[in-house]
Protein: sn-glycerol-3-phosphate ABC transporter ATP-binding protein UgpC
Amino acid sequence: MASITLTDIVKQYGDGFHAVKGVSLDIADGEFVILVGPSGCGKSTLLRMIVGLEDITSGELKIGGKRMNDKAPRERHLAMVFQNYALYPHLTVFENIAFPLRLQKGQFSEDEIQRKVRLAASTLELEDHLDRKPANLSGGQRQRVAMGRAIVREADAFLFDEPLSNLDAKLRGQMRTEIARMQRRLGTTTVYVTHDQTEAMTLGDRVAVLRKGELQQVASPRGLYEQP
Ligand code: ADP
Ligand code: ADP
Structure:
């Protein structure tokens, strides 16, 4: 686990457009921060700079106190959970969770993979479902498999990019509960991007409101609500 510190982070795209205009934010070890704002305000850009999928134009990114601006994604020890969870339908739960380990060819023995996947599965209460395919799981179980994939990487922090935006309202409600429960249980530093007000107001320890590339406000959900 690790803190994430953003200092005056700027993103200027090749066409000169400033998508992120000097964002500073301290995310404590174990904290759950929601990044919210209208479409186009720079949420994904900011998340992608943290993960290392996008260069930082200026400013500094620290993870666990270490400067990360020029580090490759794999050196940042983060795990991103995407929209729709991107599970492989033809693979079992076990193989879906094992996938990131198998990608790093030769780095883990079969025994290590077994051990790591079973540990992640037991943390997520998936140990009875390891042989099933995603189609035979509930929405909540699928969400947990996606998180299992993040956990198995032994990441220092989780980054969610609008993970629930394509789900219907009922499932979204269940997933919110599931994610909040897992995050409390694991205590992993989490940055969660959404444009959904309900998610913003119910999930996190703090809400950071982004508008046109600038942080407009950072507050507890209650503090945000009580603003005039
Ligand atoms: P959000 O995730 O909040 O919807 P994005 O981070 O995707 O916002 O985009 C922020 C702004 O940057 C938008 O105006 C978008 O059009 C622009 N943008 C995103 N990617 C690029 C790119 N590769 N080149 C130029 N502009 C981009
Ligand atoms: P490899 O691990 O062999 O570099 P991958 O396709 O797994 O290849 O990943 C490419 C890069 O993106 C790696 O540096 C990896 O750390 C990073 N990466 C892959 N998946 C994720 C993810 N879900 N979250 C964060 N980073 C990821």
Residues 98 and 138 are 20 Å apart (CA to CA). The longest strand covers residues 18-27. The chain is about 35% helix and 25% strand. Helices lie at 43-51, 93-103, 110-123, 139-152, 169-186, 197-202, 221-226.
